[in-house]
Design a protein that fits this description.
Layout: H1 6-15, E1 18-23, E2 42-43, E3 46-47, H2 48-51, H3 54-59, H4 61-76, H5 82-90, H6 93-99, E4 104-109, H7 115-127, E5 134-137, E6 140-147, E7 155-157, H8 172-176, E8 198-202, H9 212-221, E9 224-228, H10 240-246, E10 250-255, H11 260-263, E11 268-271, H12 274-282
Parallel strand pairs: 1-4, 1-9, 4-5, 9-10, 10-11
Antiparallel strand pairs: 2-3, 6-7, 6-8
Helix pairs in contact: 5-7, 5-12, 9-10
Domain Deacetylase sirtuin-type: 1-284
Subcellular location: Mitochondrion
Binding site for Zn(2+): 147, 152, 191, 194
C-alpha cells in the first residue's frame, strides 16, 4: 500500500534531483474544463474521442473544426486554479528551493487547455523571476494551429475569436440543440503562407506526442515522479511513471480518487482535489 505520510513525502521531495510531473485532466477540473471522458465527454451526438482523430478530419473537416472551435471557446474564459499555480511554483527557483532545493523540474501535461503555461507565465511576470523548470504540452494546445499541407512549415498561436467568420456562433448550437451546420471547406481557417487548410495543432488519437524523445529522457533521469489528475489510460503518458520506477525513482500520486493503475506502483498516494492537495502537500 502506498504511504499517505506527508512528512515522509516532503523528505523525498527535498532530496530529489530530477522531478518529473505528469498531469492530466483532473488538474483542470476545478477550472471548469470538461474532459473527454465522463461528463462532457460527448459533443452533440458524437463521442469527443472519436472526433479528435485523423480519420474524422478526413471525413468531415467542417465538423472537426466546429468541435475544436467549441473547445476553444469553452476554454477561453477559464483561469488556472491553485493546482496549476502550485506546480508552476515548482518551476520557479525562489519557490522550488524551499521544498526541493537541488532539483530540476520537467512538467509534462496531457492537457491542451494551456493553463499550465498560463500559470507559469503569470507567476514569472508577477515575481520578476524567470522559470528554470520546463512545461511540455505533449498533446499540443487548443490555441495553436498548423498548416495541413505536408510541404508547409506554418505554425502559429491564434487567439482570435472567431478563428474564421464562418465558425462564429456555431458553439451556441450545442446548447440550442439545432442540426449541425455545414461550413464549406473554403470558409474554414486557411494558412496565410500557402493558402491550404489549417488544422488545430493538437495531437489526435493515434498521432505521436510532441517532444516525445525529450519526455522519455526526462522520465529516464527522474528520481521522483508526481502523477497529478490523470486517469492513466492514454499511452505513452501512462507509462512514464513506470519508467521512473524502473530506474529506481519514487512515485507520488495526486488524484481525486484512488487510481489502481498507478496506486499499485506508487510510493505515496494523496486522494482529494488536486487544487487543494497539491498546495498543501507540496507546501506551495
Amino acid at each position: 500500500m502506498p504511504s499517505t505520510n506527508i512528512e515522509d513525502f516532503r523528505l523525498v521531495l527535498s532530496n530529489a534531483r530530477n522531478i518529473l510531473v505528469v498531469s492530466g485532466a483532473g488538474l483542470s477540473a476545478a477550472s471548469g474544463i470538461a474532459t473527454f471522458r465522463g461528463q462532457g465527454g460527448r459533443w452533440r451526438k458524437y463521442d469527443a474521442s472519436i472526433l479528435a482523430t485523423l480519420a474524422a478530419w478526413h471525413e468531415n473537416q467542417s465538423r472537426v473544426w466546429q468541435f475544436f472551435h467549441y473547445r476553444r471557446e469553452e476554454v477561453r474564459s477559464k483561469r488556472p486554479n491553485d493546482g496549476h499555480y502550485a506546480l508552476a511554483r515548482m518551476c520557479i527557483p525562489k519557490w522550488r528551493q524551499v521544498v526541493a532545493p537541488n532539483a530540476t523540474v520537467t512538467h509534462v501535461t496531457q492537457n491542451i487547455d494551456g493553463l499550465c503555461l498560463e500559470a507559469l507565465n503569470e507567476l514569472s511576470t508577477t515575481s520578476g523571476e524567470q522559470p528554470d523548470g520546463t512545461v511540455i504540452e505533449m498533446h499540443g494546445n487548443l490555441f495553436d494551429v498548423v498548416c495541413n499541407a505536408f510541404d508547409c512549415d506554418y505554425r502559429a498561436k491564434n487567439m482570435d475569436y472567431p478563428i474564421c467568420p464562418a465558425l462564429e456562433g456555431t458553439e451556441a448550437i450545442v446548447a440550442a440543440g439545432h442540426v449541425e451546420p455545414v461550413v464549406r471547406r473554403a470558409d474554414l481557417p486557411h494558412c496565410p503562407k500557402c493558402q491550404q487548410l489549417l488544422r488545430p495543432d493538437v495531437v489526435w488519437f493515434g498521432e505521436r506526442p510532441k517532444q516525445i524523445q525529450r519526455i522519455l529522457e526526462a522520465a529516464d533521469s527522474a528520481d521522483l515522479c508526481l502523477v497529478v489528475g490523470t486517469s492513466s489510460l492514454v499511452q505513452p503518458a501512462s507509462k512514464l511513471p513506470e519508467r521512473v520506477r524502473l530506474n529506481g525513482g519514487k512515485i507520488a500520486v495526486f488524484n481525486l480518487e484512488s487510481n489502481t493503475n498507478h496506486s499499485n506502483e506508487a510510493d505515496f498516494e494523496f486522494v482529494g482535489p488536486c487544487e487543494s492537495e497539491l498546495s498543501q502537500i507540496l507546501g506551495l
